[in-house]
Fold these 4 entries.
Entry 1:
Amino acid sequence: MTVRNPVHALRSRVGHQVFLKIAGPDGDAARLRVHDTPGPRWFPPGSPIRRVHADVTTFVGGLRALLLQSLHPLAMAGVAGHSGYRGDPWGRLARTSTFLAFTTFGAESDALRMVQMVRDTHEKVRGTAPDGREYDAGDPHLLTWVHIAEADSFLAAHQRYGERPLTPEQADEYVAQSGEVARRLGAVDVPTTTAELTAALDAYRPELHATAAALDTARFLLREPPLPRVARPPYALLASGAVALLPAWARSELDLDRWTTRSFGPTAGALATHGIRWLMGSADRRASTVDDQSSARDLDETSSR
């Protein structure tokens, strides 16, 4: 009789709990659909977008993206007026992670369905910001801002904390690939290289500042996370790593300079990602599993013709 290593058993159990916290209660079913549904995919096995989105550094990058995105007053007004971070933070995280999974790894038919669901949701998110300006979540200019903040954050986290950082050429390819999804959502003038991504962020800079809602969001995400006490110390490490990756001007706008000096910054981010990676497996292992499944599925489809 084979006796299972208790450490491995604990690692598997806790890792699965972390997965369900991020992917939501239907995460297992969604994962099966993503990887087992036959049909062509938008991105081939081994592509930069698959490498980046398979890595646990997306946890750090996702938090950085939320903080950075909040600095556009109209984008923040849409979130605050129609969902907010306090109302359903884990549901919001699950929807975002599910969207990334289907558009990065899923069958084209499912990826298109997810894009249409998001576009339909955006149709309902309209209103007036506290400064009197009207906002519309389907506005191509706002969609582009949300995209570049996300792409820059995922890439920054992967290059700083990832197991195998991308080469400059691969980083350009990641920007181009993530831009394909953004264009399908309605974004315009989408960057296709890291240089264009940097230029796009600079171009939005005059529009960005911290509103009361943005400051409340930062306080909630960093100081009042909806987690049990036992989970807050490791989350604080992850949050420190995310804040350390923000541009200096963004940390200043969100009043995070003093908070940053009291944390371990990049070292904390590295510890957090190492810990999560130990629980959930390396990016290479998880990406290769996905790619192996894709290759097997493609072989089955070819054989059946």
Entry 2:
Amino acid sequence: MIETWILAALRNRKFFSLEDLKKAIIEKLEEFNTKPFQKSKGSRLTAFVE
């Protein structure tokens, strides 16, 4: 699920170094993990910490 979500978000961007790609992936991963659940309280990050 996460792979598809990140690839879809970055599919139209061009990266000129591996470091830039890694930064973009980390940013999207953090965005995904902090996005609130739709039907529950919290996010994936808060669920993991708890």
Entry 3:
Amino acid sequence: MSRPHFDTSTYTAQLDEKVERLNALLAPFAAPAPQVFESPREHYRLRAEFRLWREGEQRHYAMFEAGDKHTPIFFDDFPIASRKINALMPLLKSAWQASSVLSFKLFQVEFLTTLSGDALVTLCYHRPLDGAWQAEAEKLAADLQVSIIGRSKGKRLVIGRDYVEEQLQVAGRTYRYRQPEGAFTQPNGEVCQQMLGWAYDALGERQDDLLELYCGNGNFTLPLATRVRKVLATEISKTSVNAALANLADNSVDNVTLVRLSAEELTEALNEVRPFRRLADVDLKSYDFGCVFVDPPRAGMDPDTCELTRRFERILYISCNPETLAANIAQLSDTHQVTRCALFDQFPYTHHMEAGVLLERR
């Protein structure tokens, strides 16, 4: 199978189709026209994952079409990936071709990079990793000036750090983020900055408090915290919670209380269905919430969490799935109306898109 061709000349037409689709989904709610944030045409993706396919004595970077795990598409470069990934790909390939220790039963390579130039490479193996591998990996990490993680069944060896460090600009301030290997991060850094700026502006300067659900590593938490009196943020992933706490400390943001709870559990806590030990030191009644910010997974908010957001005057919603966004808005449309809307083209050359809406009480 031939490799896919990312034709930059088709970008505008594809983006126009996404705008039409979002407009159609939000038309029943009389939403305003979306503000559209374009992506760079090339080198926008900060993450990439390749299987390695062996032909003769050589291993090649490979991907597969959905549903076909037998016909590889080979890559020597990857135009949609960051320049850092493209620079590392041939260097890493030369390294494993020159070292049987590095190449033996190596089956997958993952890259994680940042706009600020940091990089982490994960090498996945169908064999145990030993001292010989670690010695080779340490030399490779020094040569490439990256962190390396080796993964095999039941084992994870870290050479350097198990996260990358990102810097993002929002409203004239630089925020520093630790982005752990294996945890979710926004793949398109340039568009992520645009999303943060839009959310920062939509929230506005306020004298009350913010509730944030699904906060992840604090991607939105850091800039939004500067717009309100204090924030109560929740996240269920332990890895993301640890990263968020580090990011809050690294950026000297001290008005955020972060609790490891799911959105469903927090709904139960706020509705006083049952107590949670993780909230034992949190006085929920001390908060004066004027807005709730949500960035849920593709499934959107469950019905109970959606009902929870109804009690707030303003709902700021970032969505990676406009279909579930529309379903959630339908549930809320009798009490809230869409007053601002945005489309963020996180995923050029695919049908996926990110959207943002501000809902305000009627």
Entry 4:
Amino acid sequence: MLIDQYLSRSGIQKQDLPSDFSTLFAGYQSQLNNLAQASPENIKWQYQVPELGEGGSCSIFDQLAAEPYDLSVILGGKTAANVQMLGQLQSIVDFYQQQSASQWFGVYQKRQNQQGDTVLVKLAYFGAASRAEFPLTQEFAAMSNNSTVGMTGKARIINDVGVYLAAGGEYYTCDPKVQSEACLPLLADDGSVIGIIDSEAFSKNMFIEKELALLLSVATALAVILQS
């Protein structure tokens, strides 16, 4: 999907982009196109997740569940295709971590879990432990930007979480240090939502200028992988 189409479908306004967006975007795209795939050893097939509280929200901050989440179950095994996909995703996650000042970043794909529920499942990330699946339901969207973006295909960019919460915005809090969040849809060529990305920072006004251009470049690159 061309970037102009993505901006239109995701609801991101061109006036919110930096004046040199085209140059920045092209530069990041060039670097992303030349990334080497991550080795299988760098793929996280299992990862720690927080204990979940009432309603499926995070419980006490930094309190982890006894059992890690096993990604191979929802993906249908450690197949060659899955190894290739996760290796490509991890290489982009590593690139984003090197280029961005973000403290947390995750890539989610829309899938059905073992219970038959449609969810966003976290395939690759960096940062603190976080939940593995976000339900794609109206009930959960009432408290989660991830679920809202996964259902609507519209981006949510919050550069001051405190102000957003005070205005009554829905927000899923697992780390109280987060001050900015950008949640963008991953869109197939036909405009359907195939996943999301979520980036979080401990400072306000993070997702502007170069950071926003970088995030949009990563979103378009990841969408190509997830729909292939």
